[in-house]
Design brief:
Chain A: Pfam families: Alpha-E, CP_ATPgrasp_2. The complex is a heterodimer of chains A (about 800) and B (about 290). In chain A, α3 packs across α11 and α23 runs antiparallel to α24. Chain A is elongated. In chain A, about 45% of the residues lie in helices and about 15% in strands. In chain A, the strands form four sheets. In chain A, strands 1, 2, 3, 4, 16, 17, 18, 19 and 20 form a nine-stranded mixed β-sheet that branches. Chain A has a four-stranded parallel β-sheet with strand order 6-5-10-11, with helices on one face. Chain A starts with 19 loop residues before the first helix and ends in a 17-residue tail after the last strand. Chain A contains 26 helices and 21 strands. The chains are: A alpha+beta (about 800), B alpha+beta (about 290). Chains A and B meet through β7, α9 and β21 of A and β1, β3, α7, β13 and β14 of B. β21 of chain A pairs antiparallel with β13 of chain B.
Chain lengths: ~800, ~290
């Protein structure tokens, strides 16, 4: 098979007739109104754009985040790939055999290594392979594979071949489910017209597998955790979705700790045991003590927990060896040897170049092959260099073609199919669906995917096995076990969104005054007072303060703050990063509400070149902050996640109001009226004041409203009282010393307002509060730090001892000199 | 020969270490030529959890888990070991070129043919050994020649290298310590297609009456075992002292390089700067009173 031969068309047979499995879909497509498919494709694009938020993340937070990693650039083609039921059954059976075979190979290579001894697998594929983890050979029990993904291509002869085995990342499962629900929503006519097999039983079976693995306990909370490399990983969104669909905890290595031979998740309530770890991290990065040796990633003691039988890792840390690119060359013989069967589903032609005959075949036609490191998945080369034993040559097969929407018409494009298999305890079952990736005209692929529809066979039993019997759940009202890192992220999300809001209000008030022409002395004084607040909020620098009527630098600074590198721009980036980091706690609607308006604001801020445009963009930010607060208030269950989001907001606003008042009141008593007016404006309390006191502006009532009134949600005491209540209600009982601290701050705020109310000279008493308010701001900051220490366990990063002696003199090295 | 061994490793930390996990290769490995009469490990402060086992290479290993803050850690390993000299190098060994193909059929030998995490191929290491591997020469004979080569061309000098000094630099300096020589010899042998292990252990530094003073500062020692075909098996060579191992070496364990058999490897949280002192006592039991 070479690329020169004609590719098979998935939809049309050699005689130009539409294959039977496509007829239902084509019928439904042709009955769409004129231009219907193109319009539906736009709907799909928009849905994807709203889901993806990769474009918002600061670039440093997403190293290597491939644009094709189903971020903003991911697209779903409106035409699915249709597979006939019998054809799918053959693929599923072939892949189940392959999974059994790989399991047997892994078991041997991590145990007796008979296959090496009798030459069935060359040692070159195993011993120098970084995925061969020697510490996994001793006492880390199998099975090795629980979930398995395979990539398939259909050659010119019409036969499917396996082009790749994935047992570590297995990306795309969440995408298959998301694609299906997008298709059902966007093209319901087609979904109804085709009798296709549902995806749901597979996920149900997976949940049952986990349920059994953790024993009788409900598989929620922390008994199962999905280990992700973190928010910067290209497949972070997939990890979030899987964790949510499986109702398990989403953890980064830093969220886990091994104690006493078991693995735990660090939560607000303490350490919660983890019995099953769904790892999406390469095995070598799981345990720095035994597997890394050079890097301080992973959880020291994780392998110990696995050896002790207290933890099962899906897939086994040693499973990655099955991805060795040269292995398919040996599978037909291994299948006869280990299973006593013929390999049912062939691989794409693979040669191990350590074999002289294979090397000669490769040398005769090197352009027909791609070179891959024999052992190491993911490393390739253009030309053969060095020892040929280190290389595999993989044929470049022609893929089959499937109709794909390009512009406004359908064109045949090469597709690769990814299927997923789960071991359900009795055997391997294949997801009747998957992801098809479309290559562009140059044969590169990845960005456009297709849903995969498997037709139901006539009379086939499509129901899964009866669900596992689970004891009735006890009613729980607590928020569950919130991981400390998630609480940390939510707390800072609350703070940063509020900081955006405060900054926007301050800048907007300043811009409004700078716009007045001519500027009256009163405007100049207010601009000066606002500039002090801007300086304190680090929105401008000392050099940008207005001097004797020259405010050009100040105007420039306002515009600059929203542009790249500016403080407001950076804050929006931080907010976006924190939203991503807490994505597993947000519903799709909430996530959209937290990201889409922010993206628009960010763009508007970057483009704003006039004061009017800046003002509009700042208004957008203020509305965004209110939107986040509203969505959170209406959609998040109280306690846990919501507590920390709200706590962050209350403390930030409390500190900000105290600072604002402190700076505005740093004026001679004669100018206090203008300070009060500004304070009311910035605290969004002008209308309330007017309805209460009409136009008479006096210190005592104004400060009562923005400081002491417990009913004003923009006032100081409101924030501190809310923080006090939230701290007292943190799950696990809270820390009395922290809520007492918040209470002291609240009482201080009330006392200050009362002093002004009781003073004969209100204006003088008000200006005397300035230093005390600034001290209160600092104390709120200290309380925030104390909350961090108490709940977010800021632990120093792990370090290795005994390998690198950079810190110690050579004579003192662990091993020392001979 | 019976030896008493005592190996003390003491860490001191500038700040308390919150949590620590340590992997130890400090217990002598039982071998046909080496009987371990007794062995004990002590850890101060006592660990929250301690497990023992055999690693992939068959070496005794122990794991210590400490989850209380501690400002120092002392690990003491004590053992009594009876050592006899291994059988001498057979008179006839296969030509060195044949070793690689033979080794591929024996997984336990094949494993040591390949580069390892800290020992990538270094052409200069191959060239350093190459003069002794003339066409068709029996591998044992080549080994006899090259072991003398170390005495003439490499100088033992402590303090110029660390545990992570690459082989190229050792060759440039023509000096180093036992570990450097072992890494150099392992790298060169593997590139010539001869399986080579890194062996960690101890050497008697105080000579028997009338014996020769051996190099080694009463600390850990390292040498090499080379596979010379299915009949000869693994032959142990000490490049630091330019000799074939007899009954003056005690084996802790072996691996592909130092990283596989580091006597004490750890991952700590906290701690700040650290200091470490290592002391090894090795005495002939006969000379110990009682």
């Amino acid at each position: 098979m070479t690329a020169a031969e004609a590719s098979v068309d998935e939809m049309v047979d050699g005689g130009g007739r539409v294959r039977p499995q496509w007829r239902g879909l084509l019928g439904a497509l042709s009955s769409l109104p004129e231009g219907g498919l193109v319009a539906r494709a736009r709907l799909l694009d928009r849905a994807f754009e709203e889901e993806g938020s990769a474009g918002l993340l600061p670039s440093h937070a997403a190293p290597g985040a491939a644009p094709g990693g189903r971020g903003a650039a991911g697209r779903l083609d409106p035409v699915p790939l249709v597979l006939d039921g019998a054809e799918f059954a053959a693929l599923a059976e072939g892949l189940a055999q392959r999974a059994r075979l790989l399991e047997a190979v892994l078991e041997d290579l991590h145990g007796p290594q008979f296959l090496l001894g009798r030459g069935a697998i060359p040692p070159e594929l195993v011993f120098p392979n970084p995925a061969f983890l020697r510490p996994c050979c001793n006492g880390v029990p199998g099975p090795f594979l629980h979930l398995y993904a395979a990539d398939l291509l259909r050659g010119a002869d019409g036969a499917w071949r396996v082009a790749g085995d994935s047992v570590v990342g297995m990306e795309g499962l969440a995408q298959a489910y998301a694609n299906r629900s997008h298709m059902a929503r966007t093209l319901p006519e087609c979904a109804r017209a085709v009798q296709m097999r549902p995806l749901r039983p597979f996920m149900d079976a997976w949940r049952d597998v986990l349920q059994r693995a953790v024993g009788g306990e409900p598989a929620g909370a922390a008994t199962v955790a999905l280990l992700t490399p973190g928010v910067g990983h290209p497949h972070w969104a997939e990890h979030v979705t899987l964790a949510r669909d499986l109702s398990c905890a989403l953890a980064e290595a830093g969220d886990l700790t091994a104690r006493g031979g078991a693995l735990f998740l660090k939560t607000l309530r303490g350490l919660q045991p983890v019995r099953v770890l769904l790892s999406r991290v390469p095995g070598a990065l799981l345990d720095p003590l035994e597997l890394g040796g050079r890097t301080a990633a992973g959880v020291p003691g994780l392998l110990d927990a696995a050896r002790a039988g207290n933890l099962v890792v899906h897939n086994h840390p040693g499973a990655g060896l099955a991805e060795a690119p040269a292995l398919p060359a040996f599978l037909p013989a291994l299948c006869r040897d280990l299973l006593g069967e013929e390999l049912a589903l062939p691989s794409v032609g693979t040669l191990w170049l350590g074999d002289p005959g294979s090397l000669a075949r490769y040398a005769a036609a090197p352009t027909g092959f791609a070179l891959r490191a024999a052992g190491e998945a993911g490393r390739g080369a253009e030309a053969l260099s060095g020892d040929p034993r280190g290389w595999a040559a993989v044929e470049r097969p022609a893929a089959s073609l499937a109709p794909t929407l390009v512009g406004e018409r359908l064109e045949p494009r090469p597709v690769a199919l990814r299927l997923f298999l789960l071991h359900d305890g009795a055997g391997w079952r294949c997801l009747p669906g998957g992801v098809a990736r479309v290559a562009d005209a140059e044969g590169r692929g990845g960005e456009v995917s297709k849903d995969v529809w498997v037709l139901s066979e006539e009379g086939a039993e499509i129901r899964g096995p009866a669900a596992l019997q689970v004891p009735a759940l006890a009613i729980r009202r607590a928020a569950g076990d919130l991981p400390s890192r998630v609480a940390d992220n939510l707390f800072w999300l609350g703070r940063y969104v509020e900081r955006l809001d405060d900054s926007a209000r301050l800048m907007r008030a300043t811009m409004a005054r700078l716009d007045r022409a001519p500027m009256l002395p009163r405007d100049l004084a207010e601009v000066a007072a606002l500039s002090r607040c801007l300086l304190d909020a680090k929105l401008i620098t000392e050099e940008q303060l207005p001097t004797s009527g020259d405010d050009a630098a100040l105007r420039r600074a306002m515009l600059q703050a929203g542009r790249k590198g500016g403080r407001v721009h950076r804050l929006t980036g931080e907010v976006a990063r924190l939203v991503e980091g807490t994505r597993d706690r947000l519903t799709g609607d909430m996530h959209a509400a937290f990201t889409l308006p922010l993206r628009d604001c960010r763009a508007a801020l970057m483009e704003a070149s006039t004061p009017a445009a800046l003002g509009a963009a700042l208004g957008g930010l203020v509305r965004y902050a209110s939107g986040v607060a509203g969505v959170a208030a209406e959609n998040m269950v109280r306690g846990g996640a919501h507590s920390f989001l709200d706590l962050g907001r209350r403390l930030e606003r409390g500190a900000s109001v105290a600072a604002l008042l402190g700076h505005l009141l740093a004026e001679p008593p004669a100018r206090v009226e203008s300070a009060l007016a500004l304070a009311l404006e910035l605290c969004d309390s002008v209308i309330t004041y007017r309805t209460r006191y009409l136009h008479l502006l006096q210190p005592a009532p104004a400060l009562d409203l923005v400081m002491a009134d417990p009913a004003n949600p923009r006032g100081l005491v409101f924030q501190l009282a809310a923080a006090e209540a939230l701290l007292a209600g943190v799950e696990g009982g809270g820390d009395p010393s922290l809520s007492a601290w918040a209470r002291r701050l609240r009482l201080e705020g009330e006392a200050m307002a009362a002093e002004v109310a009781g003073a004969a000279e209100g204006a003088t008493a008000a200006t005397l509060l300035s230093p005390r308010l600034l001290a209160l701001e600092e104390s709120v900051g200290a309380l925030s730090d104390a909350i961090g220490r108490r709940y977010f366990t800021l632990v120093a990063p792990p370090r290795l001892l005994g390998v690198d002696t950079a810190e110690a003199p050579a004579r003192g090295a662990v091993r020392g000199a001979a | 020969m019976i030896y008493r061994l005592r190996h003390v490793t003491a860490y001191g930390y500038e700040l308390p270490v919150e949590m620590a996990t340590h992997l130890l290769h400090l217990t002598p490995r039982p071998l046909p030529r080496q009987r371990v009469l007794d062995a004990a490990l002590d850890c101060d402060p006592p660990p929250a959890r301690r497990t023992e086992g055999i690693d992939h290479f068959g070496n005794p290993s122990a794991w210590l888990y400490l989850d209380r803050p501690h400002a120092r850690l002392t690990v003491t390993a004590e053992s009594t070991v009876q050592v006899t000299a291994p059988p001498p190098l057979p008179a006839a060994t296969p030509p060195w070129e044949a070793i690689r193909a033979l080794a591929l059929g024996y997984a336990e030998a094949a494993e040591f043919l390949f580069p390892s995490p800290t020992l990538p191929p270094v052409e200069a290491a191959r060239a350093f050994l190459a003069p002794y591997f003339t066409p068709g020469r029996p591998v044992g004979e080549a080994a006899v020649g090259l072991i003398a080569h170390f005495r003439d061309h490499m100088a033992f000098r402590a303090g110029v290298t660390t545990v992570s000094t690459p082989v190229e630099e050792v060759l440039r300096r023509r000096a180093g310590v036992c570990q450097d020589f072992a890494h150099l010899l392992v790298t060169g042998l593997r590139m010539l297609g001869i399986p080579a292990r890194y062996v960690s252990g101890y050497i008697r530094t105080r000579p028997a009456p009338g014996g020769v003073q051996r190099v080694g500062a009463d600390q850990s020692h390292a040498w090499v075992a080379a596979w010379m075909g299915p009949e000869a098996g693994w032959i142990e060579m000490d490049p630091t002292n330019s000799l074939f191992v007899a009954d003056e070496h005690v084996v802790l364990g072996w691996g592909r390089d130092f990283g596989d058999v580091s006597p004490l490897l750890g991952v700590i949280l906290g701690g700040g700067r650290h200091s470490v002192t290592v002391g090894v006592d090795m005495e002939e039991a006969a000379s110990v009173s009682g």
